[in-house]
Amino acid sequence: EGWTREQLAQRYRDLLARAAGGDLDSVVPELADLELAATPKRSYGQHKALRQVEREGLEGALGSGPGLLPLIYLYAKVDAELLSRNEAWMAAQNRIFTAELVERWVKGNGGDAATRHVAAQLLAGVGSSAQALEIEPTNELALLRTAISNEKGGLLKEAEATLQTLIKAHPESAHGRLRLGIIERRLGNEADAVRILTEVMNDAKAAHWVAALACQQLADLAHEKGQHERAEALLKQGIEQIGLQSLYVQLAYYFDERQRPDEAIAVLNGMTVTAGRTETSGRHNYNSAPEAEIALARAQVEARVAGEWPQLRAALRVAAVPQQGSP
Question: Is residue 33 a contact partner of residue 76, using CB atoms and an 8 Å limit?
C-alpha cells in the first residue's frame, strides 16, 4: 500500500490496542494483511524493516514476561491465517518471530515448569516442534508431530526412537502407542507390534479410531499370514468392543474374498450407525494432523492467555480500552 514507516507503526499500534481489548480474532486477518502489504517482494530487507516496527510496537510488553502471551497467541493465529492464503514464506518467518517471543516470555516468567509447558504447547501447536522440544523435551504434541514427520519421510528408526521417548514420558498416550505398534510392524518387529497393538485395541480409554485401527492392523497381520479365522475373530471382537463402521467393512471384505458373500452381506446389513457420532476412518485420522492433541494444547494455551489480559493492557498502556472478552 506504499505506507511510510510511521504509518506502518501507527497501524500496528492500533492493531495491538484492539488485540489488548480481547479482539484477537478480528485482528488476525488485518495483521496478516499488514505484514503482507509491508513485504510486497517478500525480501529480507522488507521483512527486517517490518520486524523492527513490530518489536518497537511490542516494547511495552516485551519489558516484562507477564502480558506478552496474548500477543504471542495472536501470532499463532496469524500463522494459520497465512497458511490458509498459501503464504508459506511469511508463515515461516512468523514462526521464527513467535519462537523468539516465546523464549522471552518464558524467561520473563521465571522459566517454571508450568510456563515451559504452555510455551511448548503453543510452539508445537503451530508446528515448531524442534523449538518446543528445546523448551520441554517431553512435550507430547511436539514428540508426536516429530514422529509423524519422521514416518512420512521414511525415517522409521527415528520415528521409533521418538515414540519410545514419548511413551516413556506419557505411557497413557494410546495414540503414541498405536503409532509405535505400526512402526514396529513396518520395521519387521512383529512380536513387538502385536503386543503393543493388542494393548491399544483393548485400552478402554483409547479414542475409538485409535483402538479400531489397532484392531485392523492386527487383523491385517493375521490375514497376511493366512490366519483367516484369527483375522475374522479379531474384527468380530473389535466390532463388539468398538463398533466403528470400518471394522464391519474390513470383515465383510475378508468374507467376500473367501467366497462367502452371504456372510459379507450379513455383516454389512448388521452395521450400526451411532446417533450423533461422525465417523472418519482410523487410517484417515492416522494420516491427518493429531487433532485431539492440538485441541488440548490450544485449550491449555488459551487458559493461560485468559489470565494475562490485565498485564498486557497495563504493559501497552491501553487499560482504558473496554474489555471485550478473551477469545
Answer: no
